[in-house]
Amino acid sequence: MTRIDRRGFLAGTTLAGATLAMPSVLRAQATTIRWGELLAATHPQVQMVQRIAADVKQKTNGRIDIQVFPGGQLGSGKDMMESVSAGALQFTTDGAGALGAFLPALTLVEAPYLWRDAAHLAKVKDTPIFARMNEELSAKRGMRMLNVTYYGKRHLTTGNKAVRTPADMVGFKLRVPPVDVFQAMADAWGAKATPIAFPELYLALSQGAVDGQENPLPTIQSGKFFEVQKFLVLTEHIITPRMIIVNDAFWKGLSAADRGLLQAAFDAAAAWQDKELLSQEANLVATLKGAGMTVIEPDLEAFRKPVLATVPAKFEARWGKGSFDTLKAL
C-alpha cells in the first residue's frame, strides 16, 4: 500500500499529465498508474485493487506499476472522480449513484429495490442501457466504466432507536451519500436525509450529528460503525454496484495488449471481491451482533412500498421511460 498526502498528490499531477502526453512508445517502457480509493485498506474493494496491482506488476515484470491510495488519502469520492475526469488520477472505484454527479442517468443503476441479488445486478453491464450511459460518460466527462462490481446489500444502523417500520423514521436524521435518489428514498420513509461525506461519517455518528446511516455489512464492519451504533436493521433496501472507473484518454492511450492484460486482471480480482463480499455478508450479522449490536429484522414490504410508490416515477425523465422496469425484469 502506498501512502501520499494531498500536497504530494497535487504536486504529482504535473508528472501525471506529462505521462499522459508521452508518446506511446515511451509509455510502453514504464507506466505508473495512480488508483485512489475511498474505503479503508481492510475492505475487500481495496484488497481487490491491491490484488490487481500485484497481478499486473508480476505479469509485466514491474513495467506497469499501480500505486494504491486507500482511505480517502486523495480526497472525497467526488474529488477523486474529478481527478480521473481531468486526467490527474488514472483510476478510482465508486458507486453508480455517486457517478450520477457526472452523468445523472447513472443513478438508475443504484436505484432502491431494483436488483434482486448480485447475479441480477451483474447482468446490467451487458445491456444497451448501460452501454449507452458508458459512452455518454466518456464523451461528456472523459471517464469510462470498465467493470461493475458487487458492493453489497445496504442496511440501516441506528444509534439509540429501534427502527422496525418507516413510521419509526419520521424525523430521523439519516446519513445518506450526497445522491438525490438516496435522499428521495429517505424522504419516502419520512426520514430527514442528511448527506455527509463518507470519511466524516464515523465522527458524525459518534457526536450524534445524525441518528443513523445505511451501508452494506462489510462497510459497516470495516468502518467500525458498530462502535457508535446500537441497532442493525436488516432492510436490504439497495443492492449497490461499484464501478472501476478510468480516465478514458489514458485507457485509449495504452496498447491493446496492455488494455487486455489490465482488463483480465480487473475481471479476476472483481470476481474474487464479489465472492469475498458475499461470503462476508453471510457471516457479518453474527459478527456485528457479537460486537454488541442489536439486530432487527423489520417488515421489508413496509419499507419497500413507499419507495417504489414515489422514487421511480420521480426520476423517470432522467432515467428514460421504462428503463427502471426494463432492468428490474432482466
**Average pLDDT:** 93
| Spans where pLDDT lies below 50 across 5 or more residues | 13-27
Q: Structural class per helix/strand content?
A: alpha/beta
Overall helicity:
40-55%
In short:
The chain has 14 helices and ten strands. The chain has 330 residues and is α/β, with parallel strands linked by helices.
What can you see in these coordinates?
The chain is an alpha/beta fold and 330 residues long. It has 14 helices and ten strands. β1 (31-36), α3 (44-59) and β2 (64-69) form a beta-alpha-beta unit. The protein is globular. Residues 13-27 have low confidence and may be disordered.
Keywords, separated by commas or semicolons:
330 residues; alpha/beta; 14 helices; 10 strands; 48% helix
Write the layout of secondary structure elements.
Elements: H1 6-21, H2 24-27, E1 31-36, H3 44-59, E2 64-69, H4 77-86, E3 91-95, H5 96-99, H6 118-122, H7 128-141, E4 143-158, E5 173-176, H8 180-189, E6 192-195, H9 201-207, E7 212-216, H10 217-222, E8 231-233, E9 239-247, H11 248-253, H12 256-290, E10 294-296, H13 300-319, H14 323-328
Parallel strand pairs: 1-2, 1-3, 5-6, 5-7, 8-10
Antiparallel strand pairs: 3-9, 4-7, 4-8, 4-9
Helix pairs in contact: 3-12, 8-13
